[in-house]
Amino acid sequence: MIYYKQEKFNLAEIHFKKALSINPQSSVLLCHIGVVQHALKKSDAALETLNRAIVIDPKNPLCKFHRASILFANDKYKAALQELEELKQIVPKESLVYFLIGKVYKKLGQTHLALMNFSWAMDLDPKGANNQIKEAIDKRYLPEDEAAEVDDSQDSSIMTDADDTQLHTAESDDVL
């Protein structure tokens, strides 16, 4: 995790894989490996790794969220939307799910559905996940050139450490 947080993704992948060799049935470790692989621009491998994690634990919201995020990042909007709809059933009060659904609808040109999901995300998290939700709504009113610049700078940080902790906390609450 330290290497991951330091953005030393190659080293993080090596050590997550060593941990996985000790506990090969850990969906959480597979999820972390998938996230690191995506950061290393190995999106296909990341999706395969996340698929393995979901086979082990089909209700793991963090793995499903990351898989949807990677699908979104790879312009597979319909598949991302399907994943997010399933995820909504598992964690119905997770603002980040609605936020990403809103981003998908925005890319699909369905502004009314995008704004509706951004609104739901704001209702669930009034602070707006580091103001990303409010900015996404505001981008609708910016000229297209400016909106693209703002969007590109934020796509790489779809999920922050705080968001990761929030979903991980929801996951551990389910275990209790």
From TrEMBL:
Keyword Secreted included in the entry's annotation: no
Disordered: annotated segments: 144-176
One CC-aspect GO term: anaphase-promoting complex
Pfam families: TPR_8 (PF13181)
Keyword terms: Cell cycle, Cell division, TPR repeat
A single BP term in Gene Ontology: metaphase/anaphase transition of mitotic cell cycle
The keyword Cell cycle is annotated on this UniProt entry: yes
PROSITE patterns to which the protein is assigned, alphabetical: TPR
Stretches with biased composition (Acidic residues): 144-154
TPR repeat extents: 27-60, 95-128
Superkingdom as given in the UniProt entry: Eukaryota
Family of the protein in this entry: Belongs to the APC3/CDC27 family.
Protein name: Cell division cycle protein 27 homolog
UniProt source species: Liparis tanakae (Tanaka's snailfish)
